[in-house]
Each structure stands twice: as structure tokens, then as C-alpha cells.
Amino acid sequence: MIKARVTVTLKTGVLDPQGKAIEGALGALGFSGVGHIRQGKVFDLELEGADKAKAEADLKAMCEKLLANTVIENYAIAID
């Protein structure tokens, strides 16, 4: 069994209204000095098998087809 984490974030230059809302809410809660918040998504997956190269190729295909909108998002894959 291979465990992996895929982190998806907006590309630089893409507006992030949710990040701005979080930034404003933190300020309203008294957390000063916090800025430039960008939000993203994290997917934890378990894949059958032991071939890490195949797992990485499969994960990349998953990201390209479903997990990330590659027009506006970047993704990073970490395999344990």
C-alpha cells in the first residue's frame, strides 16, 4: 500500500477570494500581522501496490483529469 498526499493551490496571479475572506476574518478575530493568505486543497490517498513510479504516474493523471484545474491551479505530489 502506498500513501500519498496531493496538495492543490491556486497559481500565482490568480485571485483568491476565499483566501482574502480568511485573511479578513482572522483580522476581525484579533490575529494581527497575518497577510497574503492563499487557500488550497489537500487529498490524502492510499494506492494498492508497491511500485512508486507507477503510483506517481497514476497520481499525476488523477490531478490532470480531476483533482486540479491545471489552468488556474498547481499541484504537488508527496509519496510516503
Search tags:
single chain, 80 residues, alpha+beta, 3-stranded antiparallel beta sheet, 3 strands, elongated
Distance between the termini: 10 Å
Number of helices: 2
Give the topology string: H per helix, E per strand.
Answer: EHEHE
Secondary structure: number of strands: 3
The proportion of residues in beta strands is 25-35%
Give the secondary structure arrangement, pairings included.
Blueprint: E1 2-10, H1 17-28, E2 40-47, H2 52-67, E3 73-79
Antiparallel strand pairs: 1-2, 1-3
What report would you give on this structure?
Helix content is 35%, strand content 30%. The chain has helices spanning 17-28, 52-67; strands at 2-10, 40-47, 73-79.
Sum this structure up briefly.
It contains two helices and three strands. The longest helix has 16 residues. The model has no long low-confidence stretch (mean pLDDT 96).
